[in-house]
């Protein structure tokens, strides 16, 4: 399949070259710089007809400030250049025709101009979803329906993202997603990441970026791609800030609030934000399992219903400083701290019936769980620009810790068909975990002549994980340590990486090549049993992207990347976490890393309509499986390396704009997933063709600051490892009023109006035949108020990432 896909791409490219050669074309080129001789790569360059000022086309300068307009018809034109914080530029009249088909403009220099936001009126807002060449951008701060939501709830509505409310985030039907916060990977994974994102109000977030084919500069981890969550940043001079208050009401209340402050003056930029959320959630479970004998004859049926109340208290703070030593050097520090306390007060009732439907016995269980978590990460960084060409060096030093203390109390009682007590037992668990991450990173960028650029970098990281869990039998009221279940697991991982990248712009296409080397050493030990394991391996990760402009209307790109997905620290941890007396979750310390080869083709029409075709091939993919004991009726979930996973995905993005009153976007995909592997004495083959779509509409209601939003998504039935996940959907809406001075915003929104967002899972394999259905407090009405204060003069914000990437994602 790889061969035919490549042949198709090269055939399309060849046809486009022949077509272009048949046309006579005009071209305008130039370069835009700022007063400090730095390239104005954030400027917008527009080409207008000089006769009537009609916009012909726009261009974005590259990192060296170069731009060009191709396929220009004969006529007279004017070039206009603008960038926030700088005076606008307008060229003299330019004539394109038989006497002069190619025009090279003199270098353009933009002069700095401090502007007041009060003088600028922005009529159009960015849509909720934007499709850019290398990523999909979800504009959270422009979404009315996101008012009062958590970041996790917003992620549910992002294209291609599917959230399991208990344990995982998938992208385009694939596991292995990197979640980054402001370019730095989250310190959590699995259930820990889900709990963290539930506690962050969406009002703190500006955008969410979805990157399916990261370059060599990123860590090679993440088979499905990257989700980068970017916090809001205030770019105004002086002291500025904002305050947001939310109150949501579903089955339970969900209050939250956040504030951010930013101070910019001369060489200093100080910033910080704080948020507190105290939502109460619930989860309803229904599980139906069938148990068989050796001849596959039905022996009993297990029906379980659970109601779990989940109050959460979460505090998040982010603060830092940048100091501009001179025009070429800036140093900074950034700190992210999160405290999270949550309870799970669950009551479960299980009915075990015989094949004829007669009740055999009943189990009633109370589970009380309390978790206290803290994660804190600090980043120290330096950026030095050597000269006006853009040659620069950035370095990052990172240190962080994640601690989790969990106490669980399980009270279980069995009753016969006459409701007489048969047996009762009590079990307590006490688990303490500490993960420490250290990282050193350096990146060098060197622009070359003829629109080329060379990049290189290194990274060293060490992660230590220490988890201790103790089980106590308290049936007789006096705690007795259960040595067979208790354990102490210690794990260390060291990753050393280096990469090189080369990019060049040609007349008709752009090219980027990258190669990354990662060497990994791991060592683990179970102190309770004395078992040890170690592994050392090295991998090369090539990547490349080719962008080909076929004409004014059509653009084609082809990309390839090889990536790795290392097991998370929670997946490696062999501890048992009990969901109920019949179900527990356990890790597997012998898990192997997963390698994926991914190919993607994108076609862009009129710079906004995007279609994509991707194919990925994964070997020894890590996915959760279930193991069932028909005799004890106990099932457990454990991660495992399956043999093969293949996916083909076709995507479509359509933005729609009707004058100034309606902005819509339609994002959809059709994909085929296939899992195949020997498993539990059989041969697993689980394949499914699925589809999903997301529609977002924003409507401007008059000219007095009123607007409304209606959005929804649908996900069809699809395959995931051993499981078939049934279809799910959600419709949300909201209304918004912006004050006349633009400083205050009032919102009222309702999420999951028809209460259709639920997870239902089917498994039919070997001796397993079960169905689960989970619902939660997703239908919520929320009122929100935001007020912004401070000066309105704008300066350009500094953008930077830290060195903690893959390590922070996999904590937990």
TrEMBL record:
<dbReference type="InterPro" id="IPR041700">
    <property type="entry name" value="OMP_b-brl_3"/>
</dbReference>
<dbReference type="GO" id="GO:0030246">
    <property type="term" value="F:carbohydrate binding"/>
</dbReference>
<keyword id="KW-0732">Signal</keyword>
<dbReference type="Pfam" id="PF14905">
    <property type="entry name" value="OMP_b-brl_3"/>
</dbReference>
<protein>
    <submittedName>
        <fullName>TonB-dependent receptor plug</fullName>
    </submittedName>
</protein>
<dbReference type="InterPro" id="IPR013784">
    <property type="entry name" value="Carb-bd-like_fold"/>
</dbReference>
<keyword id="KW-0675">Receptor</keyword>
<feature type="signal peptide">
    <location>
        <begin position="1"/>
        <end position="20"/>
    </location>
</feature>
<keyword id="KW-0998">Cell outer membrane</keyword>
<keyword id="KW-0472">Membrane</keyword>
<dbReference type="InterPro" id="IPR036942">
    <property type="entry name" value="Beta-barrel_TonB_sf"/>
</dbReference>
<feature type="domain" description="Outer membrane protein beta-barrel">
    <location>
        <begin position="384"/>
        <end position="786"/>
    </location>
</feature>
<dbReference type="InterPro" id="IPR037066">
    <property type="entry name" value="Plug_dom_sf"/>
</dbReference>
<dbReference type="GO" id="GO:0009279">
    <property type="term" value="C:cell outer membrane"/>
</dbReference>
<dbReference type="Pfam" id="PF13620">
    <property type="entry name" value="CarboxypepD_reg"/>
</dbReference>
């Amino acid at each position: 399949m790889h061969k035919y896909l490549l042949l198709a791409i090269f055939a399309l490219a060849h046809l486009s070259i022949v077509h272009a050669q048949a046309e006579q074309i005009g071209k305008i080129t130039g370069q835009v710089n700022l007063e400090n001789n730095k390239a104005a790569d954030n400027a917008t360059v527009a080409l207008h007809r000089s006769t009537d000022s009609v916009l012909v086309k726009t261009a974005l300068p590259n990192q060296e400030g170069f731009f060009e307009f191709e396929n220009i018809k004969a006529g007279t034109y004017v070039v206009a250049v603008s960038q926030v914080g700088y005076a606008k530029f307008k060229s003299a009249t330019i004539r394109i025709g038989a006497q002069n088909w190619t025009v090279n403009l003199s270098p353009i220099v933009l002069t700095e101009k401090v502007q007041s936001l009060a003088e600028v009126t922005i009529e159009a807002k960015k849509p909720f979803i934007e499709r850019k060449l290398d990523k999909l951008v979800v504009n959270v701060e422009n979404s009315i329906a996101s008012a009062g939501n958590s970041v996790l709830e917003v992620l549910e509505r992002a294209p291609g993202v599917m959230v399991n409310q208990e344990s995982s985030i998938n992208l385009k039907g694939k596991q292995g997603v990197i979640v980054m916060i402001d370019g730095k990977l989250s310190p959590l994974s699995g259930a820990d990441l889900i709990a963290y994102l539930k506690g962050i109000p969406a009002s703190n977030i500006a955008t969410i970026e979805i990157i399916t084919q990261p370059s060599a500069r990123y860590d090679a981890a993440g088979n499905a791609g990257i989700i980068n969550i970017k916090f809001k940043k205030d770019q105004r001079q002086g002291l500025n800030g904002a305050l947001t208050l939310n109150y949501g009401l579903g089955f339970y209340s969900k209050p939250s609030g956040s504030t951010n402050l930013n101070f910019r003056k001369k060489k200093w930029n100080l910033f910080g934000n704080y948020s507190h959320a105290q939502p109460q959630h619930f989860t309803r479970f229904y599980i139906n399992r069938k148990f068989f004998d050796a001849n596959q004859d039905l022996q009993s049926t297990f029906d379980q219903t659970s109601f779990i109340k989940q109050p959460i208290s979460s505090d998040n703070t982010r603060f830092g400083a940048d100091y501009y030593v001179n025009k070429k050097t800036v140093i900074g520090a950034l700190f992210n701290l999160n405290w999270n306390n949550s309870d799970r007060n669950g009551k479960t009732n299980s009915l075990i019936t015989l094949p004829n439907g007669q009740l055999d016995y009943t189990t009633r269980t109370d589970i009380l769980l309390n978790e206290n978590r803290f994660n804190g990460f600090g980043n120290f960084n330096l950026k030095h620009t050597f000269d006006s060409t853009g040659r620069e060096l950035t370095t990052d030093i990172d240190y962080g810790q994640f601690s989790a203390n969990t106490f669980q109390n399980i009270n279980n009682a069995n009753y016969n068909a006459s409701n007489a007590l048969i047996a009762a037992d009590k079990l307590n668990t006490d688990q303490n975990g500490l993960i420490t991450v250290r990282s050193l990173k350096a990146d060098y960028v060197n622009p070359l002549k003829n629109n080329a650029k060379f990049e290189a970098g290194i990274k060293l990281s060490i992660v230590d994980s220490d988890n201790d869990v103790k089980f106590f039998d308290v049936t007789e009221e006096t705690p007795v340590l259960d040595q067979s279940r208790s354990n102490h697991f210690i794990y260390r991982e060291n990753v050393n990486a280096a990469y090189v990248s080369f990019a060049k712009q040609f007349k008709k296409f752009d090219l980027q090549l990258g190669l990354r080397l990662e060497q990994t050493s791991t060592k683990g030990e179970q102190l309770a049993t004395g078992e040890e394991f170690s592994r050392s391996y090295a991998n090369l990760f090539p990547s490349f992207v080719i962008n080909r402009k076929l004409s004014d209307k059509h653009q084609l790109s082809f990309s390839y990347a090889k990536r790795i997905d290392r097991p998370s620290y929670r997946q490696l941890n062999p501890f048992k976490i009990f969901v109920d007396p019949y179900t527990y979750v356990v890790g597997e310390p012998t898990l192997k890393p997963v390698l994926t080869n991914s190919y993607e083709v994108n076609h862009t029409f009129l710079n906004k309509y995007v279609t994509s075709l991707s194919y990925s091939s994964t070997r020894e993919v890590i996915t959760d499986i279930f193991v069932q004991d028909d005799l004890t009726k106990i099932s457990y979930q454990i991660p495992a390396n399956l043999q093969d996973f293949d996916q083909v995905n076709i995507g479509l993005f359509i933005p729609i704009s009707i004058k100034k009153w309606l902005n819509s976007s339609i994002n959809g995909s059709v994909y085929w997933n296939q899992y195949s592997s020997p498993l539990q004495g059989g041969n697993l083959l689980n394949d499914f063709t699925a589809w999903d779509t997301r529609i977002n509409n924003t409507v401007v209601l008059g000219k007095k600051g009123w607007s409304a939003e209606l959005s929804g998504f649908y996900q069809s039935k699809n395959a995931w490892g051993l499981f078939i996940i049934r279809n799910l959907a959600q419709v949300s809406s909201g209304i918004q009023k912006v004050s006349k001075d633009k400083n205050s915003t009032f919102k009222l929104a309702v999420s999951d109006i028809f209460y259709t967002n639920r997870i239902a899972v089917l498994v039919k394999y070997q001796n397993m035949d079960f169905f689960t259905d989970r619902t939660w407090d997703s239908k919520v009405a929320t009122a929100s108020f935001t007020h912004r204060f401070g000066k309105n003069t704008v300066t350009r914000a500094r953008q930077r990432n830290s060195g903690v990437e893959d390590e922070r994602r996999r904590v937990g």
